[in-house]
């Protein structure tokens, strides 16, 4: 389209589990002054724009900013929209005569800015538009230290514990091998305790030494 105030785009919804991501793929013909109202009406925190804009601006590597480039700069400055440069920080188009330009842009909502990875893939033969590869990195869940399970000594059955330890330990405590005896003693006491002393992660279960 070449009529001022128009913008041609395709809107796609991409689902990741229960999250819907809106992706707009616009094409702005040379010298067209685009109207972004249709996109902005549907813009939210899960939105991206990946398009061919023909909008020279010093922000993305041109020597000067054109009238169309100023419109795009104003779009970014006046709305919750960030420009994401490709990782190579390089032009997206290479003409057959050797000239380079940056007509392809990635714009995202700020919630995606630190998660968007924007790479370029060269075309076979080199010249023409490079392939833009966009990846949204999923935040890893923060590591949570497992809560220690405490012995609830107040609810222990000490009668059974006494009987079990007497039964298990009597014959081994008189053995001459001290190292083996101490190791066996520790394991036996813990095994008896696991039977007679309840454990849990409840907050009211506090160490007996506190």
From TrEMBL:
Q: Which residues form the Endonuclease/exonuclease/phosphatase domain?
A: 23-115
Reading the lineage from the top rank, the first entry is Eukaryota
Which parts of the chain are coiled coil?
none
| Gene Ontology MF term list | catalytic activity
Q: Which Gene3D superfamilies match?
A: Endonuclease/exonuclease/phosphatase
PANTHER family attached to this UniProt entry = ENDO/EXONUCLEASE/PHOSPHATASE DOMAIN-CONTAINING PROTEIN, ENDONUCLEASE_EXONUCLEASE_PHOSPHATASE DOMAIN-CONTAINING PROTEIN
Full protein name: Endonuclease/exonuclease/phosphatase domain-containing protein
């Amino acid at each position: 389209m070449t009529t001022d105030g128009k913008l041609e785009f395709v809107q796609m919804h991409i689902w990741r589990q229960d999250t819907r991501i809106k992706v707009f793929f616009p094409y702005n013909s040379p010298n067209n002054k685009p109207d972004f109202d249709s996109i902005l009406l549907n813009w939210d925190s899960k939105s991206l724009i990946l398009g061919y804009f023909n909008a020279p601006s010093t922000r993305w590597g041109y020597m000067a900013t054109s009238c169309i480039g100023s419109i795009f700069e104003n779009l970014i400055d006046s709305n919750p929209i960030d420009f994401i440069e490709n990782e190579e920080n390089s032009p997206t188009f290479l003409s057959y005569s050797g000239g380079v330009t940056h007509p392809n842009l990635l714009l995202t909502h700020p919630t995606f800015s630190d998660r968007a990875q924007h790479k370029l893939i060269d075309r076979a033969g080199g010249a023409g538009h490079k392939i833009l590869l966009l990846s949204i990195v999923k935040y890893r869940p923060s590591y949570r230290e497992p809560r220690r399970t405490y012995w609830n000594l107040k609810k222990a059955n000490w009668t059974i514990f006494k009987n079990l330890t007497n039964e298990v330990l009597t014959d081994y405590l008189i053995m001459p091998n001290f190292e083996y005896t101490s190791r066996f003693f520790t394991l036996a006491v813990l095994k008896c305790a696991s039977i007679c002393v309840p454990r849990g992660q409840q907050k009211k279960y506090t160490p007996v030494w506190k």
